[in-house]
Amino acid sequence: MSQADLVIIGVSVGVAVGILIALCAFVGIKWYRKRFHPQRCASEPSVTTLPIRTNGIGTSIDSSASISSSITTNGLQHPAKSTQRSWWNQHNKDLFASASGIPRYSYKDIQKATHNFTTILGQGSFGPVYKATMPTSEVVAVKVLASNSRQGEKEFQTEVLLLGRLHHRNLVNLVGYCVDKGQHMLIYQYMSNGSLANLLYCEGERILSWEERLQIVLDVSHGIEYLHEGAVPPVIHRDLKSANILLDQSMRAKVADFGLSKEEVFDGRKSGLKGTYGYIDPEYMSTNRFTKKSDIYSFGIIIFELITAIHPQQNLMEYVNLAAMDSDGVDEILDKKLVGKCNLEEVRLLANIAYKCLHKIPRKRPSIGDISQAISRIRKRRLTKEDTMSFAGDVSQVVRRIEHQQVELSKITNMRDNAGIT
Question: What SMART domains does its record include (predicted)?
Answer without folding.
Answer: S_TKc (SM00220)
